[in-house]
Write a structure and sequence with these properties.
The protein is mainly beta. About 0% of the residues lie in helices and about 30% in strands. Strands 1-2-5 form a three-stranded antiparallel beta sheet, with no helix packed on it. The chain is rod-shaped, with a radius of gyration of 24 Å.
């Protein structure tokens, strides 16, 4: 049996976008004495600040009395999967 969607729509009609995310981290250790270490670390989440949209809204709200679809946001994309770029700089002794 073939994969079919609702009615004659293809099954992949409402697949969302793919997600692309790049996180980076750089750290440097400075040995002061044999037992004491100083560390500097820089971390970046969503380094390229790439926008990844959420999946489209696929909720149908159908009114059988008026034969109308009541969800005005059906098929629209609202929001992002991954938050905006975030960078952290830290030091530890």
């Amino acid at each position: 049996m073939d994969n079919v969607g609702a009615g004659n729509t293809p099954p992949q009609m409402f697949y969302g976008q793919g997600a692309f995310n790049l996180d980076l981290s750089v750290a440097k250790l400075f040995r002061i004495t044999e037992s004491k270490v100083f560390e500097i670390r820089a971390e970046s989440f969503n380094t390229l600040n790439h926008f990844n949209p959420n999946n489209p809204n696929t909720t149908l709200t159908y009114n059988f009395n008026t034969d109308a679809q009541n969800n005005a946001s059906f098929g629209t994309t609202q929001g992002a999967q991954v938050q905006a770029r975030r960078m952290i700089l830290s030091a530890r002794f």
